[in-house]
Amino acid sequence: MFTKYLQDAFKVPLVIQLTDDKKCMWKNLTVEESQRLARENAKDIIACGFDITRTFIFSNFDYVGGDFHKNMVKVGKCVTYNKVAGIFGFTGEDHIGKVSFPPIKAVPSFRSSFPHLFSGQETVVA
């Protein structure tokens, strides 16, 4: 609930990424099952009482594209396979879906991934 406290105290937007694609790749689930689980996760998150006017919850399957994807490419070009393999323990037996995932997880850290939320703002504090 620390995140909710920070949102309330500073009146800042909150972006929550539902990594349904990761569940599909890492847990050997179908796309449909991982999407169902993401919807259940979203319900649990909403129940925490975040400010709905300042909270954006997104599913990777439903949202990734546009500026988000551009940032994924930029991040992907900055990180070598050896670095990612060392961090995540990838081996030659892992499928390429796992190897491609780190940039997807990283880019929500950049406000330019969400121009509809932060366009034209010098700061994100209201």
UniProtKB/TrEMBL annotation:
The keyword Iron-sulfur does not apply. One of its GO terms (molecular function) is tryptophan-tRNA ligase activity. One of its GO terms (cellular component) is cytoplasm. It comes from the Eukaryota. Keywords: Ligase. GO terms for biological process: tryptophanyl-tRNA aminoacylation. This is Tryptophanyl-tRNA synthetase. It comes from Rosa chinensis (China rose). The lineage of its organism: Eukaryota, Viridiplantae, Streptophyta, Embryophyta, Tracheophyta.
